[in-house]
C-alpha cells in the first residue's frame, strides 16, 4: 500500500499510515462489492439489467434503484401516462431488499392471433432470425434431440430419478432396510459404497448409461465430488450440446411482429412514477439512454431507443493504435461551428474531424457529451449519466462520430464528471426517490461548497455500482477510448478543493480528505484497465494528489496521465499581465518541465474560455483587429511566435472553438502553420 513512496522519495510517516489505513478500507469495500457481485465485471455491468431492455419472451423489462419509494410504475405514450397500468408487482416479485424496482411491460397480442403454445416461447428481435418460423413442431424437436443426444436408458433415468434412488437404496440395504440410525450401524464411506454398488451392475442393461454420480465427502464447506469412469467421460466430452435445437425453437422477428404489438415502441416517451412518503413523483429514469426536453418547457422525458435491425448503427472501424505520445485536440461539439447555433454530432463528424486529422492530432477529447439540462455549464452539471446530450443528436449520431474518428486514426476521449452531479430535482438524480440521501450525502456534505452541485456517496455499494457501470457503458456501447476525470479536487476533499494548499504532505491525509472517493477512483481504474487494457484515464486535479499515476498495487490511484493545469494558467497570467519582452524564460521553463512524469501539458484548455474569459488568440490579436476582422501581419507573426514557445511538454494538447484562430489560419496560412 505504500510502495510508490520509496520511488518518489516521500518519507512522511503520517501519509504512509494514511495509505495503509486506506488500503484496509479498500479491502473492506471490495468485500462489500463481492458480497453482492461476483467480480468487478459484474459490478460494472448494471446497464445490462437496469433501465429498459427487451426480453426474449415477448416483453420489455425495466429496472431502477429507488430505495425511498413505496410504489413504482412506468408512465408514457404507451399507456396514456397511466400510473396504475404498468406497475411493479407486490413483494419480491416487484422489488428487492436493496431498493431495486422491477416492472414488466407485456407485448399485446394482435387481434385474431392465438397465444403461444408454450409460455417460455422466445423470440429473436434483433437479427431477423426465422428458423423457428418453418412450422417445425416443438415435440418433434425434443424427440429428435433425445434420440441424437442421450444414451440409451439415460432419458428414462432422468425422468424417473426418484425411482432410481429408491431402487439403489433397496439394493444396498435390502427391501426391509434399517429405519433408524441405530439399526443402520456403521456405513462405509460414500466412494466405497458407490464402487460396491457399481460392481453389482455389470450385467444390468442400464450399464450402457454414463456412470455419473455425485457424492458428498462429508467435509464442511466443501464442494461435491463427481465419481465417474474414463470411458463414459470421454464419450460425454465428444458430444455436442443440443443448442441447435433450442435455437430452432426460438422464433424470429417476423413472427413476433405478426403476433404481437410491442409494449413500448421505438422513440416512445416515458418517465418513472414513484409514490413516496412525501407524495407522488415523476422522474426521468437514472439509467435512461436518451432524454429529450419537453417542447413546451415542462419536465423532460426519457425516450425508448430501440431502432429496428435495419436502422441500428453498424460499426465499421476498430479502435486505432496510437504510436508515440498523445496529441490531444480538446473540443466542444456545440460551439465547434462558425454559425450562430448549436452544432450537431453530424456537423462535427463532417467538418471538424478531418480538420483535426489534418492538423496532426491523434486524439480528440470532447467535453459536454453526457446529457445536461444547463447548457451554460458546458456539460459539467450532468443530469443523465447514460445518455448523450440530445442537443447534438441521437445515440446513433454519436456512434457514427466515434466510428469515423476511429477510421481517421483518432482516439476518442470524453470528460466524465463523477466528482459531482447536477442539483436539478426534475431531470437529474437529486431527490430521485424523494429522499435526500439516495445517490448523495445528506446535509451540508451533500452539496458542493461553491457550485451548489450534489456530492456522491462513494461509500455506498449501489452508488459504486452506478458509477462503475457508467464508465463501462461508455466504453462498451460507444467504444470510447478513454476518460478525463473532471475536477478530482471537488471529490477528494470535503472542502471541495477550495482551501489554501501550501504543498505540505499532511494536507493529503488530514481530516478533510475523502477516503471513500479515493477508493472509488482506485476501483474505477482497476476495473477499466482490467476489462479494457487499452483504455486511457486522465486525472484533472488542481491539488496534484500524490500517487495519481502510480499503480494501484503500489498505493497509487492508477491513472495513466494527469493534466497539468498550472501551465495554461501560467500562459494566461503572462499574456494578461506581463509585456512579452519582459517574460522570464526561467519561470516559464520551471513550470513546463517540473513534475513531467505522465503529464499532459495544455497550452490552453476549456478553463480559459468557459468562464467569461478570452481565448489566447483573442487576447493577443484583439487590439490589432480591424473592423473588417482582418489582422495585421506583425500581429500574426507575434502571435505565432508566442504560441510556438508554448509547445513544450510531455504530451501536447490544444483546444478549438475560437473563431479568431480559424481566421488567423485564413489570413496567413504560412504563419499559422507555425502555431
Automatic annotation (TrEMBL):
Residues 311-646 form the Glycosyl hydrolase family 13 catalytic domain. SMART domains: Aamy (SM00642). Coiled coil: none annotated. One of its GO terms (biological process) is glycogen biosynthetic process. GO terms for molecular function: 1,4-alpha-glucan branching enzyme activity; hydrolase activity, hydrolyzing O-glycosyl compounds. Pfam families: Alpha-amylase, CBM_48. GO terms for cellular component: cytoplasm. PANTHER family: 1,4-ALPHA-GLUCAN-BRANCHING ENZYME (PTHR43651), 1,4-ALPHA-GLUCAN-BRANCHING ENZYME 3, CHLOROPLASTIC_AMYLOPLASTIC (PTHR43651:SF4). This is Glycosyl hydrolase family 13 catalytic domain-containing protein.
Amino acid at each position: 500500500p505504500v510502495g510508490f513512496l520509496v520511488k518518489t522519495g516521500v518519507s512522511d510517516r503520517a501519509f504512509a499510515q494514511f495509505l495503509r489505513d486506506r488500503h484496509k478500507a479498500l479491502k473492506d469495500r471490495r468485500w462489500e462489492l463481492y458480497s453482492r457481485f461476483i467480480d468487478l465485471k459484474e459490478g460494472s455491468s448494471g446497464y445490462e439489467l437496469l433501465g429498459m431492455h427487451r426480453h426474449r419472451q415477448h416483453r420489455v423489462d425495466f429496472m431502477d434503484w429507488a430505495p425511498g419509494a413505496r410504489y413504482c410504475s412506468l408512465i408514457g405514450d404507451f399507456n396514456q401516462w397511466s400510473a396504475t397500468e404498468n406497475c411493479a408487482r407486490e413483494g419480491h416479485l416487484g422489488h428487492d431488499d436493496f431498493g431495486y424496482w422491477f416492472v414488466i411491460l407485456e407485448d399485446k397480442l394482435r387481434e385474431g392471433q392465438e397465444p403461444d403454445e408454450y409460455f417460455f416461447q422466445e423470440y429473436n428481435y434483433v437479427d431477423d432470425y426465422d428458423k423457428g418460423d418453418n412450422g417445425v413442431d416443438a415435440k418433434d424437436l425434443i424427440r429428435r434431440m433425445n434420440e441424437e443426444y442421450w444414451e440409451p436408458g439415460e432419458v428414462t433415468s432422468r425422468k424417473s430419478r426418484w425411482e432410481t434412488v429408491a431402487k439403489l437404496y433397496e439394493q444396498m440395504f435390502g427391501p426391509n432396510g434399517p429405519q433408524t440410525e441405530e439399526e443402520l450401524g456403521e456405513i462405509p464411506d460414500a466412494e466405497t459404497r458407490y464402487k460396491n454398488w457399481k460392481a453389482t451392475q455389470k450385467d444390468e442393461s442400464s450399464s450402457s448409461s454414463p456412470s455419473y454420480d455425485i457424492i458428498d465427502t462429508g467435509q464442511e464447506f466443501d464442494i461435491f465430488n463427481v465419481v465417474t469412469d474414463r470411458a463414459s467421460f470421454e464419450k460425454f466430452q465428444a458430444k455436442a450440446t443440443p443448442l441447435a435445437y433450442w435455437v430452432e425453437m426460438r422464433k424470429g422477428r417476423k413472427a413476433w411482429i405478426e403476433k404481437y404489438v410491442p409494449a413500448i415502441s421505438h422513440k416512445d416517451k416515458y418517465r418513472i412514477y414513484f409514490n413516496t412518503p412525501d407524495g407522488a413523483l415523476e422522474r426521468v429514469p437514472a439509467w435512461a439512454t436518451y432524454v429529450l426536453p419537453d417542447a413546451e418547457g415542462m419536465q423532460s422525458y426519457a425516450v425508448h431507443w430501440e431502432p429496428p435491425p435495419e436502422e441500428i448503427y453498424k460499426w465499421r472501424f476498430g479502435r486505432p493504435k496510437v504510436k508515440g505520445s498523445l496529441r490531444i485536440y480538446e473540443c466542444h461539439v456545440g460551439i465547434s461551428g462558425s454559425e450562430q447555433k448549436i452544432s450537431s454530432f453530424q456537423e462535427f463528424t463532417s467538418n471538424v474531424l478531418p480538420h483535426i486529422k489534418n492538423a496532426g492530432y491523434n486524439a480528440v477529447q470532447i467535453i459536454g457529451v453526457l446529457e445536461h439540462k444547463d447548457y451554460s455549464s458546458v456539460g459539467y452539471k450532468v443530469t443523465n449519466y447514460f445518455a448523450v446530450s440530445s442537443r447534438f443528436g441521437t445515440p446513433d449520431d454519436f456512434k457514427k462520430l466515434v466510428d469515423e474518428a476511429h477510421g481517421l486514426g483518432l482516439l476518442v476521449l470524453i470528460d466524465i464528471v463523477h466528482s459531482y452531479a447536477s442539483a436539478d430535482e426534475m431531470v437529474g438524480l437529486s431527490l430521485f426517490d424523494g429522499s435526500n440521501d439516495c445517490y448523495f450525502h445528506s446535509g451540508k456534505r451533500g452539496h458542493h461548497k461553491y457550485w451548489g452541485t450534489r456530492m456522491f456517496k462513494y461509500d455506498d455499494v449501489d452508488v459504486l455500482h452506478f458509477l462503475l457501470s457508467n464508465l463501462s457503458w461508455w466504453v462498451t456501447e460507444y467504444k470510447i477510448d478513454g476518460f478525463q476525470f473532471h475536477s478530482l479536487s471537488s471529490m477528494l476533499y470535503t472542502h471541495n478543493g477550495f482551501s489554501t494548499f501550501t504543498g505540505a504532505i499532511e494536507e493529503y491525509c488530514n481530516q478533510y480528505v475523502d477516503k471513500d472517493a479515493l477508493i472509488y477512483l482506485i476501483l474505477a481504474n482497476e476495473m477499466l484497465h482490467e476489462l479494457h487494457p487499452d483504455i486511457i484515464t486522465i486525472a484533472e486535479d488542481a491539488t496534484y494528489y500524490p500517487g495519481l499515476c502510480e499503480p494501484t498495487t503500489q498505493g497509487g490511484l492508477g491513472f495513466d496521465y494527469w493534466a497539468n493545469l498550472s501551465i495554461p494558467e501560467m500562459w494566461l497570467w503572462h499574456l494578461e499581465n506581463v509585456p512579452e519582452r519582459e517574460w522570464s524564460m526561467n519561470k516559464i521553463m520551471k513550470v513546463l518541465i517540473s513534475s513531467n512524469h505522465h503529464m499532459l501539458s495544455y497550452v490552453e484548455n476549456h478553463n480559459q474560455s468557459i468562464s467569461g474569459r478570452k481565448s489566447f488568440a483573442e487576447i493577443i490579436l484583439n487590439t490589432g483587429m480591424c473592423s473588417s476582422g482582418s489582422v495585421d501581419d506583425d500581429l500574426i507573426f507575434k502571435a505565432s511566435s508566442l504560441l510556438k514557445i508554448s509547445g513544450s511538454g510531455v504530451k501536447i494538447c490544444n483546444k478549438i472553438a475560437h473563431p479568431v484562430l480559424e481566421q488567423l489560419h485564413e489570413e496567413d496560412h504560412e504563419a499559422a502553420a507555425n502555431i
